[in-house]
Amino acid sequence: MAETFRKGKIEDFLYKLRVRKAILRNQLKAKEFYTTEQFIQGQMFAVDTIIQELADEFDLHFPERIKKTDVIESNEIPETEWMHSAAKNPAFDFLSDLEEDIYTLEDGKAIHDKK
């Protein structure tokens, strides 16, 4: 039972890695990420290496349905995965600069949502 549980956790982790790889692949296609192409390719290589090492270590042979997750379309990737990927992408590091923080609480008008 415990071995089946561990194998299930590894398979779940591998699925998440494949989702990450699909996100990276989609970023390579997007012109917004052209400046970080080498970085993204490095991440894809690292993810591929981890996937292969886990598959070899746990003697996992993926059925066809799992292999298809390797070509996940962007509309199939959970929103939380996209948000996490964008938050960690170095292309947006400039938003952390103090120079980008140009607004204060006194700017604009408060929005009061009435329901």
Report what the structure shows.
By secondary structure, this protein is mainly alpha-helical. The protein has four helices and no strands. The longest helix has 28 residues, at 2-29. Mean pLDDT is 76; it is low at 63-70.
Short description:
This protein has 115 residues and is mostly helical.
Number of helices: 4
Q: Please write the string of helix (H) and strand (E) elements.
A: HHHH
Number of strands: 0
Overall geometric form: elongated
Write down the overall mean pLDDT.
76
Keywords:
single chain; mainly alpha
Give a topology summary.
Elements: H1 2-29, H2 37-57, H3 64-67, H4 79-88
Helix pairs in contact: 1-2
